[in-house]
Amino acid sequence: MKAFILLTSLALVACYGGGSNCPNGSEGCPCTASGLCDPPNECQGGVCVTPADTSTDTPLDAASDTATDDVISEVECTSNADCDDGNPCTADTCDLDYNECKHSPVDADEDGYPVMEVEGTACTGGTDCDDSRDDVYPGATETCDGVDNDCNGDLMDGPRDEDSDGYNDIACTGGDDCNDGDALAYPGAEIETCSLQDHDCNG
User: Fold this and answer.
1) How far apart, in Å, do the first and last CA atoms of the chain sit?
2) Contact, 155 vs 147, CB < 8 A?
3) DSSP for residue 123
């Protein structure tokens, strides 16, 4: 038994004694006196070991990874160009804090509503019929300006009563107020002045 222990001790000295066969800090060798190892090795239980590779490398650099095989589940990135998923309906950006790609629905006018269509491609879940204007989105106030402000498919819908005289702007569907900026002007107004303005909207 003593002979066995002696032989084992000699073998350990040969392998982990810090000699030329197993220099301290190298993979499979003892850690240095300060508990350090040559990168990328780590000191575990007094021995330098190569840590498991838990990265999610891109297909481009996975082949050059010599530690362990990767499970490619995400795309690592260093710039937005690394994150292009080929979908025009997504804004592809690189989160440099985590080197992770983010794919968000396109909302160029930042009104909180993703675009309905990009370059002829219908976008799933998109509701903004004009992503170049932040005053155009579902539920927006219709201004009867020839633009479908509320994205309901009607360019001249309403009603709209800017001057709060109880009559809707004639520019909007069903409106009959010939001057929606003047509360004294509306159909049947009793006051008709000589101001060359049609206050009663009779033409």
Assistant:
1) 121
2) yes
3) P
Output the CA–CA distances (angstroms, integers) from residue 8 to 2, 3, 16, 21, 31, in the order listed. Answer: 10, 9, 12, 17, 20
Reported as a single tens digit per residue, the pLDDT across 146-201 is 889 999 988 777 778 888 888 888 878 788 888 888 888 888 787 656 667 777 78
CA distance 35 to 44: 9
Tokens of 20: 């030329």
Is 89:81 a contact under the CB 8 Å cutoff?
no
Alpha helices in 17-162 (DSSP H): 59-62
DSSP annotation of 110: -
Residue 83 DSSP symbol = G
Beta carbons within 10 angstroms of residue 201's beta carbon: 16
Count other C-beta atoms under 10 Å from residue 167's C-beta.
Answer: 22
Cβ contacts of 135 within 8 Å, gap of 6 or more: 111, 141, 143, 149
Summarize the chain as % helix, strand, coil (round to 5).
10, 15, 75
